[in-house]
Amino acid sequence: MAEQKPVRIAVAGATGYTGAELVRLLLDHPYAELTLLSSERAAGQPVGRLLPAVRNHPGVAAATLRPLAELPEVDIVFACLPGGSLPARMPLLAERAKYVVNLAGDFRLRDAGQAARHYPESAGWDEPFAYHVPEFSAAPEHRFLNLPGCMAVASLYALYPLLQDDLVEDRIVVDAKTGSSGGGKDGGEHPADRFGNFRPHRLHGHRHAPEVAQALGDLTGRTPSLQFSTFSLDVARGILVTAYTTLRDGRTALDVRRAYARAYARTPFVAARPSPKSAADLPSLKSVVGSNVAEVGFQVRGSECVSVATLDNLLKGAAGQAVQTMNQVFGFDQATGLPRTAVAP
């Protein structure tokens, strides 16, 4: 059997929370060769100085951050740039990379009005990006891939089985609670305001709402009427999504249990919890933070169904999902280089 050639990788925006987490994962990936780690503001500085979490890894001993203009030919670029920054850089990336995987929201929405409202700086690149969720899509055939937002993908995991099996009515309410790293390094909220607090973030008009509705429509053929509200948690990492649905006439808790079991029976990183006997059996942050696993659970009472999904926003919601996608693109096992166990306490 021929020896596996390393995948030449560039991380554009390597010093943000998502980029740094991606670097951490790729340093121990058996087939990854980190060819360029870019930062415009910190170009020329040692990687270990800007990314203290990886400074003790021998793979960064002599590595320096470089401007994106120095990008050589690579197999894949992960774009971990602020929203609106990628379109102007796409001509360079498209010329020098076989694949471009975007972790920001620039090309997630197809509706021109919604895209202009939520991502007004994202115009300027005409070739389409495919929206890719590893659990619901085969190995990607497109060169340009856009990954879901962290709260969006948690919502998809919570809701997909219910719509796929036509179990619930169209009106759905979702509340999504996220840790502070979900807002990025420039999130703007002072730690003193967040510490010891739990507050609404955006009750209406969040940009993930049209994304979730669009993705569910594409995946299941049903586009729900969605109320999507977000809240800020006093934790560094983690997302907990709660979705409230009403079962259609004749649908039962057994139908729901079968739908979740069927949807996630062969997904290495989405764990469907069985019908819980107590609250301790439901998904929790402590069960997933530090891992690339999302947990999904539910409870049904009469026609009322409440679904819960949890994940680590920087891993399963971002960098881990990106590595999972790379594994699919290059034919590796999806689990290669990704952690399955959470960090405790």
Automatic annotation (TrEMBL):
<keyword id="KW-0521">NADP</keyword>
<keyword id="KW-0963">Cytoplasm</keyword>
<dbReference type="Pfam" id="PF22698">
    <property type="entry name" value="Semialdhyde_dhC_1"/>
</dbReference>
<comment type="function">
    <text>Catalyzes the NADPH-dependent reduction of N-acetyl-5-glutamyl phosphate to yield N-acetyl-L-glutamate 5-semialdehyde.</text>
</comment>
<dbReference type="InterPro" id="IPR000534">
    <property type="entry name" value="Semialdehyde_DH_NAD-bd"/>
</dbReference>
<comment type="similarity">
    <text>Belongs to the NAGSA dehydrogenase family. Type 1 subfamily.</text>
</comment>
<feature type="active site">
    <location>
        <position position="150"/>
    </location>
</feature>
<dbReference type="InterPro" id="IPR036291">
    <property type="entry name" value="NAD(P)-bd_dom_sf"/>
</dbReference>
<dbReference type="InterPro" id="IPR058924">
    <property type="entry name" value="AGPR_dimerisation_dom"/>
</dbReference>
<dbReference type="GO" id="GO:0003942">
    <property type="term" value="F:N-acetyl-gamma-glutamyl-phosphate reductase activity"/>
</dbReference>
<feature type="domain" description="Semialdehyde dehydrogenase NAD-binding">
    <location>
        <begin position="8"/>
        <end position="118"/>
    </location>
</feature>
<dbReference type="InterPro" id="IPR000706">
    <property type="entry name" value="AGPR_type-1"/>
</dbReference>
<keyword id="KW-0560">Oxidoreductase</keyword>
<dbReference type="InterPro" id="IPR050085">
    <property type="entry name" value="AGPR"/>
</dbReference>
<keyword id="KW-0028">Amino-acid biosynthesis</keyword>
<protein>
    <recommendedName>
        <fullName>N-acetyl-gamma-glutamyl-phosphate reductase</fullName>
        <ecNumber>1.2.1.38</ecNumber>
    </recommendedName>
</protein>
<keyword id="KW-0055">Arginine biosynthesis</keyword>
<dbReference type="Pfam" id="PF01118">
    <property type="entry name" value="Semialdhyde_dh"/>
</dbReference>
<comment type="pathway">
    <text>Amino-acid biosynthesis; L-arginine biosynthesis; N(2)-acetyl-L-ornithine from L-glutamate: step 3/4.</text>
</comment>
